[in-house]
Design a protein that fits this description.
Elements (H helix, E strand, L loop, with lengths): L1 E5 L5 H29 L3 H33 E8 L2 E8 L2 E9 L3 E7 L13 E8 L4 E9 L1 H12 L11
Antiparallel strand pairs: 1-2, 2-3, 3-4, 5-6, 6-7
């Protein structure tokens, strides 16, 4: 059996710039709206201008807030993976609370595929971060490993997940 744990705070180099960009994208338009609001609601014509300006600027505030939420999720989530001869079990935790649990039988797994997701790449890192996905018989994919730095680490973890008995010196599942 192989147990892998991908703890929270494992990708701050990618999450922190995303959060900063989101905060700026939300704060600047919000500050402009707040500064102009007293003058724009003085009469009906200005009120119409306020509605038009807000309808253009508010999506930027929402976009920035969504980016901040994604960054918080990137920092707060953890993944626990157990791989044995019978299958793979994954448990996703956010702030230490289980939010999703999956069990995949070995017979359902068609392949273990690596992918380099864009959001987990650091602009300051040379080696890419890989995720491993189990492709299931019905075509769905399930994350079985995350933020593996470099191709060598990805290949090593992929081999462990594909054949967990190779990790056990006694050959016990």
């Amino acid at each position: 059996m192989v147990e892998l744990y991908f703890p929270p705070l494992r990708s701050p180099a990618a999450a922190i710039p995303l959060a900063l960009f989101g905060a700026i994208a939300a704060a600047v338009p919000a500050a402009v709206i707040a500064a102009l609001l007293p003058t724009l609601v003085a009469n009906a014509g200005n009120l119409l201008a306020t509605v038009l300006i807000a309808s253009f600027v508010l999506p930027f505030v929402v976009f920035g807030a969504i980016l901040v939420a994604i960054a918080v999720y990137m920092l707060a989530n953890a993944l626990h993976v157990r791989s044995d001869a019978s299958g793979i079990e994954t448990t996703r935790l956010v702030f230490g609370t289980i939010v999703k649990r999956r069990r995949i039988a070995r017979a359902e797994i068609r392949s273990i595929e690596p992918q380099i997701p864009t959001r987990y790449q650091s602009p300051f890192g040379a080696a890419p971060a890989y995720h491993l996905y189990a492709r299931i018989a019905d075509g769905r994919r399930v994350v079985v490993a995350e933020t593996l730095r470099g191709e060598e680490a990805m290949e090593r973890v992929k081999a462990l997940i594909e054949d967990p008995s190779a990790n056990d010196p006694g050959g016990n599942p």
